[in-house]
Amino acid sequence: MTPKSLFLIGAPVDCGKTRQGCIMGPDAFRTAGLDTALRALGHHVTDLGNLTPDVVDASGPDHLHQLSKTVGWTQSLSRAAQDTAPKGMPVFLGGDHALALGTVSGMAEYAATQERPLFVLWLDAHSDFHTPNTTASGNLHGTPVGYFTGRAGFDAFPSVTAPVPFENICMIGLRSVDPEEHCALADVDIALHDMRSIDENGIKAPLATFLERVRAANGLLHVSLDVDFLDPDIAPAVGTTVPGGATLREAHLIMEMLSDSDLVTSLDLVELNPFLDERGRTATLMVDLTASLMGRRVFDRPNRAA
Prior knowledge:
Blueprint: E1 5-11, H1 25-31, H2 34-40, E2 44-50, H3 67-84, E3 89-94, H4 100-113, E4 118-123, H5 144-148, E5 169-174, H6 179-185, E6 191-194, H7 195-201, H8 204-216, E7 220-226, H9 248-261, E8 264-270, H10 281-293
Parallel strand pairs: 1-2, 1-3, 3-8, 4-5, 4-7, 5-6, 7-8
Helix pairs in contact: 3-4, 8-9, 9-10
């Protein structure tokens, strides 16, 4: 892989759900040696520190959890994406998945200025296709895809002027989709690959097909990697564990294919809750996966002490 300029952007977003702990995520990635791993692969790494949310006074349905702070994060993260993307590849260290409200919408704005389409690879157990009006829990980390595709109901948020087309999204790893989301997804052209389809057909073919589409369109590719994409047996540090997730090898294969493609232009690492981890094993795994995405190969992986 050609050496890249990588910008680590801490996003200690912890307002997208009621269970706390993701605020510690960015520092856990740093402690696990993310910058060292990326520099060892020849990349130029700049850590921009942690962002803070804009101060916003937003109003919406009463059941929504910390709406104003989530809107503030959306604004500051969108701005950070647009400011950083012209200089290199932003890597957003979460923080819960509400951060993607800002990161993806910001990258879509940047892509529009380049007259190129944005594609999104969503690696997650959940589709996060709710709107503020359909989420029963009020947890806004379940709404990013609804937002950046331009669904109605986000009146408190910045207007989406560059919505990501449904056909430019590929979701892999789904295994927990609410009924309201299921109905809405049936009417749109998002590529959906749940774990049953992965079990039956493998993980390589759907990803290869998607990457071919990105390349053919000269698109930018944003990858959003949620810890709960992985099986909780190997990645326990997440508040939304769903059994039956991706295995270690499946996850590394995806990262290696992304590396081979050299198409990825921005990355989210989200939902790491160090309070729930076991001696840092989930943070270390996420760092290893990021290293695979950025060029590390199977023969280059370090041994781990027992």
